[in-house]
Amino acid sequence: MRKSLFSLLIILLTACNAGADSADPQLLFASTLDNPLAQAVPLKRYQGKPLVVNFWARWCPPCRAEIPELNDFQRRYQGRIQVLGIGLEDNPALVSDFVREYAMIYPVLLARQQAIPLMKSLGNTQGGLPYTVFIDAKGRIVGHKLGLLRPADLEAAARQLLAD
């Protein structure tokens, strides 16, 4: 019985990590998304910088809960690591109001129909939220987190992002 459970656990862990192992940020950098002012932002401008890319939605309670941590992280690592918020949103006016309400200090973009393909290309095979990817300056994914970010998650990511 224990051997069967252990085998099942190994299979599940392998399946969960398979998406992350094949993750590739090239689709992200090839994309152009709108900001809340409906202005097109080519994500190529962020290539070559350490990034914390956070996928979120207004209706997602854990997404809202982690915004203060992301704001604090952006303040502490300003100029060294860039936080990007990518909303699974369609309406720029609603996102603009949300950004003001939550005092988001990092760039926020609307993914619209690109949201699911972008998340999947970055290793989120489950499509859950929030989803955060850590990309180093060389364009390598050095980590990811499905679910609520904690300060320890961000600090561990910062060490990896600034290691080179």
Describe this structure in words.
- With 164 residues, the protein is α/β, with parallel strands linked by helices.
- It has one domain (2-161): 3-Layer(aba) Sandwich (Glutaredoxin).
- It has helices at 2-21, 26-30, 61-76, 92-101, 115-121, 151-161, and strands spanning 32-34, 40-42, 51-56, 82-87, 108-110, 131-135, 141-146.
- The strands form 2 sheets. It has a 5-stranded mixed beta sheet with strand order 5-4-3-6-7.
- The longest helix has 20 residues, at 2-21.
- The protein is globular, with a radius of gyration of 16 Å.
- Residues 1-20 have low confidence and may be disordered.
Computed Rg: 16 Å
Main sheet summary: 5 strands, mixed
- Low-pLDDT runs of 5+ residues are 1-20
* CATH fold naming: Glutaredoxin
Name its key features.
globular, alpha/beta, 6 helices, 164 residues, disordered N terminus, five-stranded mixed β-sheet, single chain
